[in-house]
Amino acid sequence: MSTVAPSAPFEYGEDYAFYDARNKFVPDYYQRILASATSKIEIWDTHFRPECDGEVFKDVTCANLQITILTICDRDYNTIQDVRDLANKIMANLRPEVSTCKLTIFAFHDRCRYNNMLWHDRFLVIDDSRYFLVGASMNNQVGSKTSFGIHFLSKRPDLVLLRRKLQSYMLLTGNAQLRHKVSRNRP
């Protein structure tokens, strides 16, 4: 699997981990992946909700961390204040060991989704070297009542393809008419 040690309640295959919600345990593999970052975290997640509290970041301890989140503003999460609130929650959940951090959230307007400009799946990239396809949104990674999987992408052609596609979507972040942008820095 990845360089992150397996943990219960996930079951592990070669490149895939499955969380079975029927076990009634709190999933923690996503948090462990985030905590393994040494320089950079990229989250591509289309389904943030206002109740997302950023708790998945509570085990991150690396200083000098850069966090980039791309998401979509939808009917429940559509104002610049919603994006600011999310950024504040994430920063509040970072441990004191994260003495220096830059968080940037790009929240694309929902109309971009319906104009076929955006992606559907959820991705997690750690340190520009470990890529994951994630089945559940970040706010479902703590206390999820549904089962889901996390796929570690290990084949070179898959990594090259995904990196190229993610970079093409990053170009959209430069267009202020398409998105809200919020940045937070520590200190």
What features would you describe in this structure?
By secondary structure, the protein is α+β, with helices and mostly antiparallel strands. It has 4 helices and 9 strands, in the order ββαββαβαβββαβ. The chain has helices spanning about 30-35, 80-95, 110-115, 155-170, and strands at about 10, 15-20, 40-45, 65-70, 100-110, 120-125, 130-135, 150-155, 180-185. The chain has a 9-stranded mixed β-sheet. Strand 4 (about 65-70), helix 2 (about 80-95) and strand 5 (about 100-110) form a beta-alpha-beta unit. The longest helix is centred in the last third of the chain and has 15 residues, at about 155-170. The radius of gyration is 16 Å and the shape is globular. The relative contact order is 0.22. The mean pLDDT is about 85.
Characterize this entry briefly:
With 187 residues, the protein is an alpha+beta fold. It is 22% helix and 28% strand.
Jot down its keywords.
187 residues; alpha+beta; 9-stranded mixed β-sheet; 4 helices
